[in-house]
Design a protein that fits this description.
CATH topology of the largest domain: 434 Repressor (Amino-terminal Domain)
Strand order of the largest sheet: 2-1-5-4-3
Number of strands: 5
Number of helices: 8
Strand content: 5-15%
CATH superfamily of the largest domain: lambda repressor-like DNA-binding domains
Order of helices and strands: HHHHHHHEEHEEE
Distance between the termini: 18 Å
């Protein structure tokens, strides 16, 4: 998906409607900086903004993703191409998130071990040690809950019984028995319990 092409297309359609960036931003209840980022190909509009943006610019979502007006005879083909491109973008984003989870997890564990080591070798009162350890333990736990949120949202869990792929709720992921990124959960499709592995595609 060519963000530069999409950005130029948004700009072209905005100008056709004789709207400034500020006027378009006001209609969408966002900042004109966001419009500028779209038009410069820095990022794409979020999913919640797209339908209203397309309505204002009198284009379809398929036109928007294509970065051009799509001929009706090519509409279905272009739609398939855009859906595949979006799926690839999501896969890449999920891979990056799972890599980030590993990096942040290592940083958190090293941070916690370093604090424990420092507290153990420095001569200080027990109460002072507790005042250092408990706040850092709190930070460590908050970090772990955040990392679990990343794991829950990135990719899918696949049922070993029926191969259904889904995103479970945070609570299900939190309380499920697990090893690595494989969790023992009940599939919403076949209602059977199994060890479900994290998959990206």
């Amino acid at each position: 998906m060519d963000q530069i092409k999409i950005g130029k297309f948004i700009q072209e359609k905005r100008k056709e409607k004789k709207l400034t960036q500020s006027e378009l931003a006001e209609k969408l209840n966002i900042t004109d900086r966001a419009i500028s980022k779209w038009e410069n190909g820095v990022c794409l509009p979020d999913a919640g903004t797209m339908p209203e943006l397309c309505e204002i610019l009198s284009i379809s979502i398929n036109d928007l993703f294509s970065g051009e007006k799509v001929d009706m005879k090519d509409n279905e083909k272009k739609l398939e191409e855009n859906l595949l491109e979006m799926a690839k973008m999501k896969e890449e984003k999920d891979r990056l998130l799972l890599r980030l989870e590993i990096v942040l997890g290592l940083i958190l564990v090293l941070f916690w071990l370093a604090i424990c080591f420092i507290v153990s070798i420095i001569d200080m009162e027990e109460s002072t040690k507790l005042w250092i350890i408990f706040p850092t333990l709190f930070v460590f736990m908050i970090g772990m809950f955040y990392l679990l949120r990343i794991e829950q949202n990135a990719g899918y869990y696949e049922c070993r019984k029926c191969h259904h792929k889904y995103v479970p709720s945070y609570n299900k992921v939190l309380w499920a028995m697990h090893y690595g990124r494989t969790r023992y959960m009940k599939c919403p499709e076949c209602n059977k319990w199994s060890w479900q592995k994290k998959v990206i595609k």
